[in-house]
Amino acid sequence: MGVKIWINRKKIYLSITVNGIRWRECTGLTVSPDKKQNMKVLRMAEVIRSNKEISLAAYRYGVVDPEGSRMPLVEYLHREVKDKPKKHSLRYVLKFVEMFAGNLKLESLSPQWIEEFQNFLTSRTELTSNSAEVYMQAFRSAIKKAVRNNLIIKDPCLGVKHIKGEEKRKEYLTTSDIKLLKDCTPKDLFKQEIKNAFLFSVYTGLRVSDLRTLKLEDINFSTKIIQKQQIKTSNFVYIPLSEQAMEILKGQEKIRQKMDNEKTIYVFPYLCSTRCHCNQYLIDWGKDAGVKIHMGWHLARHTFATLILESGADIYTVQKLLGHRELKTTTRYAKVTDKKIREAIDAFPLIS
Fold first, then answer.
1. Which of 33, 54, 101, 254 has a C-alpha 20 to 30 A away from that of 157?
2. Residue 335 and residue 202: Cα distance in Å, rounded?
3. How far is 143 from 140, CA to CA, in rounded Å?
4. What is the pLDDT along the chain (352 residues), one digit of tens a residue?
5. Start-to-end CA span in the chain (Å)
6. In the chain, what's the furthest Cα-to-Cα distance?
7. Does residue 94 contact residue 141 with C-beta atoms inside 8 Å?
8. Phi/psi at 269 (nearest 5 deg)?
9. Where is the Tyr recombinase domain (predicted)?
């Protein structure tokens, strides 16, 4: 194991070798033409090199990184959100950590502090309990990563009860709602594709991220089955296509014929090309169709899960179709519907 300073094109890097594997990391420092300034830069580079060597040794021998453990919690979280999407929950919770934590260091994190922070989120902010728990999930994931990287010895979140959220009734489209949406066709070609993609999700349960990346090669048209690796979970799903789903694919073929670019390898080329989520298009389309439920992409996925359960499918089948690793995730999508409750009561034996 070794860490050396390596300079290339005036940039200062660390050349790291562990178990025969070598890689380089940029220090962010640049060689200065001024000799005195350059001596300071090289001294700083040596400090970075030494700290990196200590961190690698700590990781190798399973002990806490002494330098990393003294890092302020806020600084650590800022590093973690650096490559996260703009709307990632960790970015939101970081704002509250900055308000509450001060200069608290990673080594000072404790179960008591976690409880106090959770109480702060639920009692001294405008967050709902559900939102606070979502933010805490992102926070706990970041802390677990700190444990894996030997920045702290034990996860302080262990044993701390999660924030209890309020159960909300998940809405879904009825068959009459779906008919209204089918009968309302926007004039714009792009909006027509948004309509097709949404209805295709209603019939297949695919997420919008999977709709964006769905290629023609993912579909076996002879057997009418989609075989695709999900973007979110990396799990493969195998979804038989209904006649209604096949009709949408025929409609999309006409749209692709009007396009002349490389995106036509995708089932939904317009959706693939745009970076926006197109939620406003869904909302406007829903209003034009006379649907009272607030439209969003996830509504289609939840509708698929609910309607297929009402049709008699068991929860394990729905789990496979949705591509969930755990059954408890599926149960959040598919609560028992009024129809199932009525069927259960009607099946109660008559007692004379």
1. 54
2. 17
3. 5
4. 688 998 988 889 988 887 777 888 888 899 888 888 889 999 999 988 888 787 777 666 666 666 778 899 999 999 999 888 888 899 999 999 999 999 999 989 999 999 999 999 999 999 999 999 999 999 999 999 998 888 887 889 998 999 987 766 678 999 999 999 999 999 888 999 999 999 999 999 999 999 999 999 999 999 999 999 998 888 899 999 999 999 999 999 888 887 766 667 899 998 888 877 788 999 999 999 999 999 999 999 999 998 998 888 888 998 999 988 888 888 876 665 666 667 777 777 777 6
5. 82
6. 102
7. no
8. -65, -35
9. 168-346
Give me 90's structure tokens: 């960790």
Q: Is 168 helix (H, G, I), strand (E, B) or coil?
A: coil
Cβ proximity of 285 and 173 under 8 Å: no
Q: CA nearest 97: which of 68, 71, 76? A: 76
Nearest Cα residue to 170 out of 334, 310, 329, 297:
334
Tokens of 162: 């999660």
Please report the beta strands in the chain, taking only residues with DSSP state E, as ranges in sequence order.
2-8, 11-18, 21-30, 219-220, 225-229, 236-240
Q: Count CB neighbours of 62 within 10 A.
A: 7
- Scored b (16 or more CB within 10 A) or e, 331-348 reads eebbeeeeeeeeeeeeee
Structure tokens, 155:
């996860």
What 3-state DSSP class applies to 313?
Answer: coil
Rounded Cα distance between 70 and 73, Å, is 9
Specify the residue for token string 């779906």: 178
